[in-house]
Amino acid sequence: MIASEDRTGEGYSERGFDGLLEIMGRLRAPGGCPWDAEQTLESLRRYILEEANELAEAIGEGDARDICEESGDLLLQVVFVATIAAEKGLFGIQDVCRAICDKLVYRHPHVFANVAVHGDSDVSRNWEMIKAGERKEREADDSAMAGIPRGLPALLRALRISERAAKKGFDWKFGDVDSVRAKVLEESDELRAEIAASNADAIREEFGDLLFAMANLARHLEIDPESALQKANGKFISRFRQMEALASEQNAVMENMPLDELEALWQSAKKVEINGRR
Predict the structure, then answer these.
(1) Contacts 24+ apart (CB under 8 A), 234-237
(2) Cα-only R_g, the chain
(3) pLDDT tens-digit profile of 204-226?
(4) Single residue among 95, 115, 133 that ends a domain in this structure
(5) Same domain for 241 and 210?
(6) Which residues of 200-219 are buried (b: 16+ CB within 10 A; e: fewer)?
(7) How far apart are CA 242 and CA 235, in angstroms?
(8) Which of 81, 157, 216, 271 could form a disulfide with 152 if both were Cys (CB 3.0 to 4.6 A apart)?
(9) Are residues 214 and 176 in the same domain?
(10) By residue range, what is the domain housing residue 56?
(11) pLDDT score at 248
(12) 218 and 156 co-located in one domain
């Protein structure tokens, strides 16, 4: 277990969740922190997204201490939201906890009721049917596309959209990678045609269609496209830094080097990376 560190001398770190609530109450109260006191639900949106991304990044790095710390940072945002909402008479943290408990029990009838399932595909199908029923009861949008957050990274949102469509049967047979690859190639050809025609609006549209098709291909390959792209980003950064180091060793200025020499640096950087993994 990772030991918590109490830097306050007041024992807050030993109080767990209740300690967090008490600290937040003091921060928002008169005589507390001016910055915390002036925050609103709207102002917290950016911090919620930042903390969620930092937690996801920590999980990707696999460092338990960082994951623990970033989990706390994200939890703080939930408590912050509930505290502000309670001040407005909307709801409090106990309402948040009760709501998620009720939702988890209701959406897991195979655990808390007598519904039989055969594998995770049945669980996923039931989950979506239950959510659709909930939306209908609230007289909300009952489309399979409802509830997919617009604030998701576009690549992840494309994955969620294609998952929803697949659950309605609008999909190739799962694992039919050749058919999905053919769709990717079709979109690539359409993009190439619009590039040749120099049609800026159509190029943008076809480029988006190609990215969407790639996200769908990732789903059929059982790859998370967001994490795959993040890994590719990290790999490029690592190799580019190595290029910079190699150029420095040669007393060369990259901005003044012709493209063929830069490509040679890139290939050298790849070799350094490959040798370093051995």
Answers:
(1) 235/273
(2) 25
(3) 999 999 999 999 999 999 998 98
(4) 95
(5) no
(6) eeebeebbebbbbbbbbbbb
(7) 11
(8) 157
(9) yes
(10) 15-95
(11) 94
(12) yes
Contacts of 76 (CB under 8 A, 6+ apart): 20, 24, 51
Same domain for 212 and 200? yes
pLDDT in tens, 5-54: 555 556 555 678 999 999 999 999 999 999 999 999 999 998 998 999 89
Tell whether the model's pLDDT for residue 110 goes beyond 90: no
- Give the mean pLDDT of 47-67: 91
Decide if 102 is inside a domain. no
Q: Answer whether residue 259 is part of any domain.
A: yes
Contacts 24+ apart (CB under 8 A), 14-21: 20/75, 20/76, 20/79, 21/79, 21/83, 21/93
Regarding whether 174 and 115 lie in a shared domain, the answer is no
Q: What is the per-residue DSSP string for 218-272?
A: HHHTT--HHHHHHHHHHHHHHHHHHHHHHHHHTT--GGGS-HHHHHHHHHHHHHH
Residue with tokens 């690549």: 155
Nearest by Cα to 245 from 274, 272, 263 = 272
Extract the tokens encoding 136: 């209908």
Residue 41, token pair as written in the block: 């639900």
Contact at 8 Å (CB) between 194 and 204? no
> Are residues 80 and 37 part of one domain?
yes
Whether 89 is covered by a domain: the verdict is yes
As for how many domains the chain has, the answer is 4
The per-residue pLDDT for range 71-104, each reduced to its tens digit, is 999 999 999 999 999 999 999 999 999 999 999 9
Check: CB of residue 163 under 8 Å from CB of residue 179.
Answer: no
For the chain, helix (H) and strand (E) counts, in that order, are 12, 0
pTM of the model: 0.62
Q: Which domain-ending residue is among 65, 95, 125?
A: 95
Residue 5 lies in a domain: no
Widest distance between CA atoms in the chain = 72
